[in-house]
Amino acid sequence: MKISKEALFLAKDLNLNEADAAIIQLKANLYQKAANCIQKSKFSHGTIAKMAGTSRVCISRVFNLGENSLCMELLIKIIVALKNKIPLKVVKIK
Known about the structure:
Layout: H1 5-13, H2 18-40, H3 45-52, H4 56-63, H5 72-83
Helix pairs in contact: 1-2, 2-5, 3-4, 3-5
């Protein structure tokens, strides 16, 4: 995964390391993907919430790209519930 300049600058401003920048970038990517999945879905927010095991309020927050305090696990659950596939690829580091 390529880390964006914005994530690197944010990590630097917060005195975080490159690994933290990668986490910031990954969460931002998952958040955007989850929001896109919700927007393209034909399900109601309540139905998506039941599918992902969360509240309708959390789904609405992601849909509106609101407060970004959700954990990555919940974002992955939303994506998997709507796309029926895992949004990540694990690669072996050489």
